[in-house]
Amino acid sequence: MNSPVTLSRRLFLIRSAQAGAGLTLGVALNAGAADGYTGATGKAVDDELAANAFVTLKPDNTVIITSKHMEMGQGTFTGMATIAAEELDADWSRVETVSAPSDSDTYKNLIIGMQLTGGSTSIANSWTQMREAGAAVRQMLLAAAAKQWQVPVGELTTDANQVIHGPSGRKATYGELSTAAAAMPLPDKVTLKDPKDFKLVGKQFLPRKDVGKTDGSATFTQDVRWPGMLTAVVAHPPVFGGTVKSVNADRARAMPGVKAVLEVPSGVAVLADTFWQALQARKALDIVWDEGEQADFSTAALLAQYRELAGKPGLEARNDGDAAKVLAESEQVIDAEFAFPYLAHAAMEPMNCVIQRTDKGADLWFGSQGPAWDQVNVAKVFGIKPEDVNINILYAGGSFGRRATADGNYVTEAAHIARAYGQSVPIKLVWTREDDNTEGHYRPMYVHRIRAALDEAGNVTAWHQNVVGQSIRGLDENTVDRTSVEGAANLPYAIPNIRVDSHNTVSPVAPHWWRSVGSTHSAFAVETFVDELAHAAGKDPVEFRMALLRDHPRHRAVLQLAAEKAGWGKPLPEGHFHGIAVHESFSSYVAQVAEVAQNPDGKFRIVKITCAVDCGVAVNPDVIKAQMAGGIGYGLSPLMFSEITVEKGRVQEANFDRYRVLRMNEMPAIDVHIVPSGEAPTGVGEPGTPVGPPAVANAIFAATGKRIRQLPATEFFA
Amino acid sequence: MPVTLNVNGKTHTLEVDPQTPLLWVLRDHLQLTGTKYGCGIAQCGACTVHLDGQPVRSCSVPVSAVGDQPVTTIEGAESGEFQALQKAWQDLNVYQCGYCQSGQLMSAARLLADKPDPSDADIDQYMSGNICRCATYDRIRAGIKQAASDLATEVSA
Ligand code: FES
Ligand code: FES
Fold this sequence. Notes:
Bound molecules: FE2/S2 (inorganic) cluster
Shape of chain B: globular
Number of domains of chain A: 3
Helix content of chain A: 25-40%
Order of helices and strands of chain B: EEHEEEHHHH
Distance between the termini of chain B: 52 Å
Largest sheet of chain B: 3 strands, antiparallel
CATH architecture of the largest domain in chain B: Orthogonal Bundle
Oligomer: heterodimer
CATH topology of the largest domain in chain A: Aldehyde Oxidoreductase, domain 4
Helix content of chain B: 25-40%
Shape of chain A: globular
Number of strands of chain B: 5
CATH class of the largest domain in chain A: Alpha Beta
Radius of gyration of chain B: 16 Å
Structural class of chain A: alpha+beta
Strand content of chain B: 5-15%
Number of strands of chain A: 30
Largest sheet of chain A: 7 strands, mixed
CATH class of the largest domain in chain B: Mainly Alpha
Largest interface: A-B, 61 and 56 residues
Number of helices of chain B: 5
Strand content of chain A: 25-35%
CATH superfamily of the largest domain in chain B: [2Fe-2S]-binding domain
């Protein structure tokens, strides 16, 4: 098993004499080698060392792992470090993780093809890359020790930042060997560990590597402060598609601390010494808006349109057999329609970005999720080259998809402000919560209509699902967007006739991916409807699903595990009810059992969610459990409370007073179980999110006989 | 008119609009950026600091209302409760993005000072003013309980 493998991507070695720090060894894997990329070796000199390495060893025996993925709470700094440190045999307490700079060639996401954190791909695409990076450095350390001690490499072992020669009892730390190791030739083959020898991968608990988050010292975009820095806030149009007709900024300009008032494409920007001054001046702006064509836009009218479309044929997203015919001929047809509102991401840290125009290009500091996009979008504003846009990637205070903006959005706005201001000073663009929540880039509204036929024996003979909503990827009305129909078009249930239709609709509101994307709505529609079919067929919801999942062993395994751990079918306390759901997204499989309890006033409390997950090799069980719990909590808000509505063009839920989100007293107990697996690891950031809501809705059905057809289902929760 | 503030044991005299919320004075004038902005309307708790030992939403306290009441931010928090919580937060990997956690810790520190052995219901009630969008609530609950039990052991030892 642990035989040498040729490196899948060319390694390059970086040797650097850092002032006063001795020699540092760094190794990076040239991710672009496969497509002829040759630039990295040339760049990797001297002080660019740390910037280009995945693994850096310092003479003080510190191991620095560079994460090409940004940390937004999902634990990727810990994940990247675990994988590399495993193969390196590093001492976890001596491992630190830092963020990669913007450099899409070296740090591209190997699944997506550019530098981007998203789609729950970080661990999946880095697994082999980070293993090889760690293993290569370890091999060089062994070679250095063998040479120094004049012993065969085969007699050497490693453990916790040490090379050990058993026969003589000699030991040296990685730090001590780093200089000698840096002079060793780069291995062209590395030996990866047999998984049975893993010490860190799969370990139940490792302290996280995104540090400074319990004493206020971690730096978020919001916290960046440079000498002479100005803070910008922007007055945005009150309606979608509005523009500035005229602005009188006399009063604002005269206010203390105000440095400039500038028109930018997205509105009117105020620059001041402090945030509060900028905000006060924004209030003093006299702006006449041209409200444009969407001044009367309302989500209620849009929903009515969607409901109508849900009864009409759309684009074919899947067509097995002849669902229409079987439905037309069947005696028992069940028909249901589901409506889902717009949702804001409402990351705890509202969007923000620090930018400074420099002689050559631009420097930025923020929680950039898609640096490759952000570089291009900023470059366009200034008319410069994307590689001259240098992004320092900071911790993000949550994102849930929000910061991965292909269209630039708040980043482009920051660049326009810097361009309009002209001077080379650092500018921090700050969005207020209201700016953030009302700007759009929402999880789009959707309507699903599902019709299914049951025969006399309770077999599902046909399934027709119609999905109506905006294409997140901006596709035209003739092209199916797989993000609209994921979770529906790939329905895992064995039904002979399946038809899935998709309608791409038009709305003035910018659509965006929101933690688990299409599954945010498809899992709810599919899993509550399957539950309904089980009841119509007179079967137990678990057994009913198990039979229909006969070709999907991984679905079955999580379903069974969740049911078993939750005590499915066993008696519950008086007034408590169970519901279950199973769903695959981003190649991870999740089943959840919800236990709800009805209060004397008829409202429900979600007592507990038991979750089973199969995400392949469990790299960091603790991070997986955290992501399941966090994903569940994130998904419950839109089941219970959250929605964005628009009336007369204006968003009605601008802040947490009206955009209600889950709080401590509403969080259920969480019990996560991980299916042991040797499959390649897959993501966990998103797959926990879509499964809780249908499980809870099914439990509420068990209690009340009522089906939830529209979210949020606030009436059940107070 | 200059405003005098006592923050983390130090006295500062500042030229600032007296209507400025304490949050922005801490962040923009004193560079104490551990206290976060999340909503500005006393809804999320990210900006929680202690005013004379009591947790307040600093986004909604004008600096002129502070007077001589001492202000404690995450940077200056050092009570036994706070330290026990900080340790529990690390021992249990409570946080995710971390953005809400200064506020969570400041609220939890006061909870433990008032109720050294809080029940689930106490925690739910006391902590429901602090939103965590990463939904680390179950671990916050566990962290508070661990800190409580650590403190109890210390006292009895
Ligand atoms: S920022 Fe003060 S409570 Fe939200
Ligand atoms: S840890 Fe991210 S908001 Fe609480």
